[in-house]
């Protein structure tokens, strides 16, 4: 079985800083990791690969330093890794990202299953997986927490819903986005890490893909970010002291002043 | 402090640290409380190739040497030395085969060790033979192309969990310890059973058992080296493994110091964090200094051994002696800094203090280490070095 896992390199910290001029993330000086949700996609891909004696390719669109995320995937057991990297891809929204990934996957050609994490911890949109399935014209199951059956023709999965779970069957090839309940990701191995250090990472630029150039990057992004900002820190509250009747009067006065009541 | 580790060594250290923090830390208190062998964690370590670190490349390992093993044991011990020793005891049990085994023995056993499919154990100690190894009574009698083992080994780490046991037994009791030989005994061999499971003060996640041999027949080819070489095999094995105990001790001490530092910053008494009191600061400073001195000694001796040095008994004994005394002192003071909380099982420092004690005792008590060091000093003097 041929498996493709799409991953994203994200800043490690929850404390994301934004450049006020460009309204984009400041990535300099922030350690990067594989998006934690994508780690579950990698693990699930590896498990299917090991059971089916298949192959697993990991792809990512990102700057040259995303090479590290791909090497980590190889250290975990991925067979191949492709970095889709070009200045012309930068500033992409979810649509342009999905478009670019779709072009790369079309270039790879054959696949049985595509796995993505539910969403990335930086953008938090959960859109790229579904958009990618749409562009490739294949079925999708989102929020997958269990794969019950899988063969070359079909797959049966459990989707995590708020009030239980759905069991759905879909023909293959298909795309799944997975949630953290699906597995416990493995740790890398020392031999895997040594292999990863020496591995050749394929790099594809816009010239290697057959897409429409105007659909890439910022230019190809229908989403326009008007403003991104860090919310002001919450001011500290006031603690009222004294007799209860005085405190209540003071509280009501304050609530009226702030137009809460 | 930068010890100029190689890229591979940093990789081993990082991975051991991740295993310790992500997989061992969440369960260490439970493993200690229940005295439960960490089977799942051992399997996970096996998948990460940790057991390959000390096995030569031609037998499926990574060809790492003393310092590589030291780094792994230190990082694991920083979180839980009970788990760490279950790992390190496999290295100890495999050293007789690595150092003195025949090509055939190495080919047969080491790939299983490297992949983590088989754990090892080293069996020298007996009820009447602790510091005085010459008191061993277990015998191996040759009969019809087989050796027949009889006797009891005591306090064997990884007992019942290991598949491969390297056992010291007397092939010629009349010669005393000079009549000892080393053997490989596989778990499941008829006549080889496990006795009492020990209840210990510390390192409670590790398994410590009696091995009982009653007319246990093993093939002649399971003899390591030659008859009569058993004591030498055992001593060289311990020379090789002692820096590992040093590493275990540094790891325990480092873990305890980190807990004490963190706690001292959080704990407020007399209106300020206790870390602002000089009495506490000086204790922390002494801990850090002692640990760094121990680490510097262990790493340099490990490097000395890795350089191919032949005479290592003295230096190897020094690592274990010094680092274990540091671990004891540091953990006692960590409990002191945490005060009443430190004495409770809600915090990990009391476990670290219990765990530290064994490092002064096993693989040769610290009194025996001093004997080894002094004996070597006198030998060197006699040789005019």
SSE map:
The complex is a heterodimer of chains A (261) and B (385).
Chain A: E1 2-6, E2 9-11, E3 18-19, E4 24-25, E5 32-34, H1 36-52, E6 55-61, H2 67-76, E7 80-84, H3 94-108, E8 113-117, H4 128-136, E9 140-150, E10 154-161, E11 164-171, E12 174-178, H5 190-198, E13 202-204, H6 244-257
Parallel strand pairs in A: 1-6, 1-8, 6-7, 7-13, 8-12, 9-12
Antiparallel strand pairs in A: 2-5, 3-4, 9-10, 10-11
Helix pairs in contact in A: 2-5, 3-4
Chain B: H1 7-24, H2 28-34, H3 39-47, H4 66-79, H5 81-100, H6 103-114, E1 120-123, E2 139-143, E3 146-157, E4 164-170, E5 180-186, E6 192-197, E7 208-219, E8 223-224, H7 230-266, E9 268-269, E10 272-273, H8 278-306, H9 313-343, H10 349-359, H11 366-382
Helix pairs in contact in B: 1-4, 4-5, 4-7, 5-6, 5-7, 7-8, 7-9, 7-10, 8-9, 9-10, 9-11
Describe the structure.
The complex is a heterodimer of chains A (261) and B (385). Chain A has 261 residues and is of the alpha/beta class. Chain A has helices at residues 36-52, 67-76, 94-108, 128-136, 190-198, 244-257, and strands at 2-6, 9-11, 18-19, 24-25, 32-34, 55-61, 80-84, 113-117, 140-150, 154-161, 164-171, 174-178, 202-204. In chain A, helix 2 packs across helix 5 and helix 3 (94-108) crosses helix 4. The relative contact order of chain A is 0.17. With 385 residues, chain B is α+β, with helices and mostly antiparallel strands. Chain B has 11 helices and 10 strands. In chain B, the strands form 3 sheets. In chain B, strands 1-4-5-8 form a 4-stranded mixed beta sheet. A 4-stranded antiparallel beta sheet of chain B has the order 2-3-7-6, covered by helices on one side. In chain B, strands 9-10 form a two-stranded antiparallel sheet. In chain B, helix 9 runs antiparallel to helix 11 (366-382). The chains are: A alpha/beta (261), B alpha+beta (385). At the A-B interface, helix 5 of A face helix 1 of B.
């Amino acid at each position: 079985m041929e498996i493709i896992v799409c991953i994203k390199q994200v800043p490690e910290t929850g404390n994301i800083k934004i450049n006020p001029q460009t309204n984009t993330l400041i990535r300099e000086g922030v350690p990067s990791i594989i998006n934690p949700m994508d780690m579950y996609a990698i693990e699930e891909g590896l498990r299917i690969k090991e059971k089916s004696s298949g192959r697993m390719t990991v792809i990512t669109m990102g700057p040259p330093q995303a090479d590290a995320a791909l090497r980590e995937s190889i250290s975990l057991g991925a067979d191949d890794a492709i970095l889709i990297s070009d200045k012309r891809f930068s500033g992409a929204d979810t649509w342009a990202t999905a478009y670019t990934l779709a072009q790369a996957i079309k270039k790879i050609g054959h696949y049985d299953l595509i796995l993505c994490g539910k969403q990335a911890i930086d953008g938090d949109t959960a859109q790229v997986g579904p958009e990618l399935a749409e562009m490739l014209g294949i079925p999708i199951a989102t929020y997958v927490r269990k794969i019950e059956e899988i063969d070359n023709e079909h797959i049966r999965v459990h989707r995590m819903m708020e009030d239980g779970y759905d069991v759905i069957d879909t023909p293959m090839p298909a795309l799944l986005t997975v949630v953290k309940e699906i597995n416990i990701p493995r740790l890398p191995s020392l031999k895997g890490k040594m292999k990863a250090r020496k591995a050749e990472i394929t790099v594809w630029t816009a010239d290697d893909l057959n897409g429409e150039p105007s659909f890439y990057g910022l230019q190809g992004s229908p989403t326009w970010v008007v403003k991104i900002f860090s919310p002001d820190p919450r001011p500290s509250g006031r603690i009222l002291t004294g007799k209860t009747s005085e405190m209540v009067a003071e509280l009501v006065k304050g609530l009226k002043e702030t137009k809460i009541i | 402090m930068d010890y100029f580790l190689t890229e591979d060594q940093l990789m081993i250290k990082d991975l051991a640290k991740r295993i310790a923090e992500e997989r061992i830390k969440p369960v260490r208190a439970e493993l200690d409380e229940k005295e439960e062998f960490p089977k799942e964690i051992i399997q996970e370590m096996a998948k990460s190739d940790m057991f390959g670190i000390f096995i030569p490349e031609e037998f499926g390992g990574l060809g790492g040497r003393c310092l590589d093993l030291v780094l792994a044991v230190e990082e694991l011990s920083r979180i839980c030395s009970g788990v760490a020793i279950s790992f390190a005891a496999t290295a100890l049990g495999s050293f007789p085969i690595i150092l003195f085994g025949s090509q055939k023995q190495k080919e047969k056993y080491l790939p299983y060790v490297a992949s983590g499919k088989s754990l090892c154990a080293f069996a020298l100690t007996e009820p009447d033979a602790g510091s005085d190894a010459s008191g061993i009574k277990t015998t191996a009698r040759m009969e019809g192309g087989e050796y027949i083992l009889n006797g009891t080994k005591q306090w064997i780490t990884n007992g019942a969990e290991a598949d491969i046991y390297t056992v010291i037994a007397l092939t010629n009791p009349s010669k005393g310890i000079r009549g000892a030989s080393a053997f490989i005994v596989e778990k499941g061999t008829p006549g080889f059973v496990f006795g009492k499971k020990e209840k210990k003060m510390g390192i409670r996640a590790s398994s410590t058992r009696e091995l009982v041999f009653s007319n246990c027949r093993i093939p002649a080819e399971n003899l390591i080296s030659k008859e009569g070489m058993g004591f030498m095999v055992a001593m060289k094995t311990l020379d090789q493994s002692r820096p590992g105990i040093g590493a275990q001790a540094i790891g325990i001490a480092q873990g305890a110091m980190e807990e004490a530092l963190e706690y001292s910053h959080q704990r407020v008494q007399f209106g300020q964090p206790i870390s602002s009191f000089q009495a506490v600061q000086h204790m922390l400073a002494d801990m850090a200094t002692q640990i760094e001195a121990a680490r510097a000694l262990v790493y340099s001796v490990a490097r000395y051994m890795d350089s191919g040095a032949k005479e290592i008994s003295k230096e190897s004994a020094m690592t274990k002696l010094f680092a274990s005394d540091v671990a004891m002192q540091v953990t006692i003071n960590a409990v002191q800094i945490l005060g009443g909380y430190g004495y409770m099982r809600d915090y990990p420092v009391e476990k670290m203090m219990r765990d530290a004690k064994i490092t002064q005792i096993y693989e040769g008590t610290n009194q025996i280490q001093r004997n080894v060091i002094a004996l070597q000093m006198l030998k060197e003097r006699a040789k005019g070095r």
